[in-house]
Design goal:
This protein is mostly helical. The protein has helices at 3-34, 81-88, 96-102, 115-120, 122-128, 138-152, 157-182, 185-200, and strands at 40-48, 51-58, 106-108, 134-136. It is 58% helix and 11% strand. The strands form 2 sheets. The protein has a two-stranded antiparallel ribbon with strand order 1-2. It is globular.
Length: 201
């Protein structure tokens, strides 16, 4: 990550914290009062091959003993009522401001992958993860809704896994490489505003 991109991330995160702080507290209280479980969900992700970190989110699903892979239709029954609202507006990702300040993530970049996919496709992620993972990005903006639709049609974990590997990873990796070739601070700002606009719509 370039010094300019890192400086932008820190400055923008510090600007957003006092603005979003009250919303973060309200969501945390809502989850504490209605969820009956942990407020936060911490998932291992990779910021570089062989370099894991804990990705912070508000918990949107009921806790189970074992959970692995991406979320598809096979996990929809576990999504809580408040979780559906948080996911719709991507508010479950607000705790990732902590990941940004710690340097685990950037505001804009490829979505942080699970270890299993980085190890399964090392030739892909060794290139993609030259960029620090982001909260949003070109792939998130252009493909996230479509990815949700096709994964929501999957009824088993095996079907979800096959669909994600064969249909989602190839498309997202191509978009991540396009971003990598065109990354500038101004491009990042444009993607951030487009993401906010899409969420608000």
């Amino acid at each position: 990550m370039s010094p300019a991109k890192r400086a932008f991330d820190i400055g923008f995160a510090l600007l957003l914290l006092p603005l979003l702080g009250p919303l973060i507290v309200l969501i945390a209280l809502g989850l504490a009062l209605t969820g009956g479980g942990p407020i936060f969900y911490v998932s291992e992700r990779m910021k570089a091959p062989g370099v894991p970190f804990g990705l912070w989110k508000f918990r949107t699903m009921r806790v189970v003993a074992q959970d692995f892979g991406v979320s598809g239709g096979d996990k929809q029954s576990r999504v809580t009522r408040i979780g559906r609202v948080l996911r719709r507006f991507r508010a479950d990702e607000l705790p990732q401001l902590l990941n940004i300040l710690r340097g685990d993530m950037s505001f804009v970049g490829p979505r942080p992958p699970l270890r299993q996919y980085v190890e399964q496709f090392p030739e892909v992620y060794s290139v993609i993860l030259k960029n620090r993972p982001g909260v949003t990005g070109l792939a998130s903006l252009l493909y996230h809704r479509h990815e949700e639709r096709i994964l929501s049609a999957c009824k088993t974990s095996a079907q979800t896994e096959a669909t994600y590997v064969n249909r989602c990873i190839p498309v997202k990796s191509r978009l991540d490489l396009i971003y990598q070739c065109n990354q500038t601070i101004w491009f990042d700002i444009m993607l951030i505003f487009q993401t906010v606009g899409r969420v608000l719509r």
